[in-house]
Amino acid sequence: MPHILVDNLRKTYRVSERDPGLRGALRGLLQRRHRTVEALSGVSFALERGELLGFIGPNGAGKSTTIKILSGILRPDGGRVEVDGRDPFADRERHVARIGVVFGQRTQLWWDLPVGDGFDLLRDIYRVDPQRYRKTRDELVALLHLERVLDQPVRQLSLGQRMRAEIAAALLHEPDILFLDEPTIGLDAPSKLAVRDFVRRANRERGTTVLLTTHDMHDIEALAQRVIVIGHGRVLADSPVEALRAQVMAERRLVVDFAQDATPPVQVDGATVHSRDGQTLVLDFDPKQTPAPALIARIAGAHAVEDIRLEGLAIEAVIARFYAMHGAAEA
Amino acid sequence: MGPRDLARPYVAAFVSRFLQMLQYRTAALAGFATQCWWGGIKVMVFAAFYSGSAIAGAASSMSLAQAITYTWLAQGLLVLMPWLGDPEVAQAARTGAVAYDRLRPVDAYALWFARTAGWIAARLLPRVALMAAFAAVALPLVGLGDWAWQLPANAMAGAAFLLSVVLGLLLSTAMVMLLNVATTAALNERGIQAVATPVVIVFSGNLLPLALLPDAWQTALLVQPLAGLFDIPARLYFGHLSGWHALAALGLQCFWIVALVAFGRMAMGRTMRSLQVQGG
């Protein structure tokens, strides 16, 4: 049986609307207007024990909603969710004792309490055995480099420190499943690396099942074996990271600077012109059909060339194209 | 799971909030200063009121000395007045951090209740202590014994009063929980606060002893839930209620605690089912 099973999940929100300006405000007093937004329209997937799944999609695609339903915060409007055989909403108290959740944009630690006091409070709330707690906490503090912030109130931490503390807080009760909703948002490069490294270890060494949403494709490349692309409340792709990369990374880009006195060609066989700017020509090509050496040789042979640069399409650009292909970009 | 383990999260939540609030010394001192000021004004109003010969005999249920003691008690116990939801809950509702409370493997109502009780208790104790030091000790020392906070009628009355204040704390917490739930549903506490303040201050007896209000209202005034916040503890203090009447009054406080907790749990359940945590 899969560890997490999601079948045809549906969720709608009611949002209130009003016209801008004074007239809109006055009309809003008399007549409220609501619009139904379909956040999830039939999402299905399954996750085995010990898997690490990346969840990507544009803003408003339904990633966070899925996590909120899986963690028992929101009640779905339709479909079935089972986590370790439990219904997260109906069986909330038993369910949440076995999961850890981090929302990158919110804090679960108490703003005015020192980090260490917050950890102690979580120990009692989760009824963790005190000896076991000390061992887990010391491990987490060492791995996430939290020694120096334990005595500081949460409100005084930098974002990077806070996020590391948040992740430790979510793991003090040694959950089987970890839900991470944009855990690297707004972090600097070293903090991002620390978070990724830690998540990878938790997954590999403890066998924690991890579901992670992000907008940072480097998170996905560094961590996930499998990725689900979600858009408009539907699953657009569910495949291993390598397969997704092969599918959308087929294209390469060649940037050619022609010499001052040369005339850049209007078109080049085996490649499409992406853009041109003065003496610079940007070409896209599929390396399976036109091998890069052949293309470069052909151009350099026919024209006076100053410089040639070969670029893989940035994975961000690839994903943006993927969203556009599926009409999934945010309206 | 033994009873100790069962209670562990709630005890920890109470203690943590209690210790956290004790840190705010400036707020406690400022509150104390304000309460002394208003207490002084109320005492003078009472003195003028009682010296008017027409009234002195009519309001015989309470002497001037008792009215003055009543005033100091009311000022010392002011934070029992539930006109404000727990700001931590209000902030959590606005920022969406309330979602995290749903992620704890505990009874959500009981967890909030414990934290809110800690919030109230931590503001109550320093203010009572300061007020007692000022009105019961300092005033007689400087020769203003007539204006001082007097001892309770007898030891029994004192014990009943203490028990009643503890029940008043629980009752206040149950009421603040209703404000908390309403705040979560409405995402804003100001409107609720504006409505709650005048109602609470009059019907708890904090403004005037309920016994001084019209005779025809007395039964209704005594059984309504807000009387349990201050008026009942005060009547026990002066020995106006004793024996079976005292027990009945404590029982009434318990009844309102149970009723309001049941109502609060129901309201919270409803709010949480329709909770929408948007964005992010």
UniProtKB/TrEMBL annotation, chain A:
The keyword Cell membrane applies. CDD domains: ABC_NatA_like (cd03267). It comes from the Bacteria. SUPFAM superfamilies: P-loop containing nucleoside triphosphate hydrolases. Keywords: ATP-binding, Cell membrane, Membrane, Nucleotide-binding, Transport. InterPro entries: AAA+_ATPase, ABC_transporter-like_ATP-bd, ABC_transporter-like_CS, ABC_transporter_ATP-binding, P-loop_NTPase. PROSITE patterns: ABC_TRANSPORTER_1, ABC_TRANSPORTER_2. Residues 4-257 form the ABC transporter domain. One of its GO terms (molecular function) is ATP binding. This is ABC-2 type transport system ATP-binding protein. It comes from Variovorax boronicumulans.
